[in-house]
Amino acid sequence: MDLGSFELQEKKLRAWLHAEDSQRSGPSAETSWAGWDPLEADAENDVIELLESAQRNRLLTGPAQIGLIYIDDPNGDAYYTTVDLPANGEMGELRLASAACEWNLINPGEQVGAEAAIAVLAGITAEANALLRSLERFTAPHEQAAHEQAMAEALEVTDGIQAHGTCGCGEPIAYYDGEWMHVYNDQLRGTGDHDPAPS
Predict the structure, then answer these.
(1) Under a CB-based contact definition with an 8 Å cutoff, are residues 174 and 161 in contact?
(2) Residue 188: is its pLDDT beyond 50?
(3) Torsions phi, psi of 184, nearest 5?
């Protein structure tokens, strides 16, 4: 799994939060998931996969502390777990750190920055998507096939403008009046400093 294919499940992952020591309070709740929505049982695994992906893609380096926030408790309580991400750590070290983490109860009034944390998570995902697009890196055959199909469809322009190739940025281009131009909605626009993709 890579960040480019990670889907943010907002009901499951309410925030990705750097929790401070001062926010921790209450007893450990390591015993079970009793009373929680069964659909949320995989939330910790999702966070682990996301962290591993971020580490692989060099988008996140440690040490870092990740908080997973829930605000669906009838009593208004919020739960979080932390995962210590070691700098340049091995995947085994990361998973071991996750296995050793604890669940804790915190005051909902201390959930400062939860909305910002969601934005950070979305931003990291978007950054990874941009990275994958720029490098044209695909981790599964079906992703490569989908990309090739999308590019083939993009080259099927109409209204007399025929795309002649693909720009280095992935957009269809046409050679017109001595220069390469992007093809957008049957219109030609300059490519700036972009060069045609190597054949």
Answers:
(1) yes
(2) yes
(3) -125, 120
Residue type for position 152: A
Range of the domain at 170: 141-190
Same domain as 131, residue 147: no
Tens of pLDDT along 99-121? 433 333 333 333 323 333 343 44
Are 59 and 74 in a shared domain? yes
In a domain, 198, yes or no: no
Of the candidates 12, 11, 16, the residue with the CA atom closest to the CA atom of residue 125: 16
Whether residue 98 sits in one domain with residue 8: yes
Place 173 in a pLDDT band, splitting at 50, 70 and 90. Answer: confident
Q: In angstroms, what is the C-alpha Rg of the chain?
A: 22
The mean pLDDT of the chain is 46
User: What is the distance between the alpha carbons of residues 184 and 142, in angstroms, rounded to a whole number?
Assistant: 26
Cβ atoms of 86 and 63 within 8 Å: the answer is: yes
pTM, entire model: 0.25
Please tell me whether residues 102 and 184 are part of one structural domain: no
pLDDT value of residue 174: 72
What is the end-to-end Cα distance of the chain in Å, rounded? 30
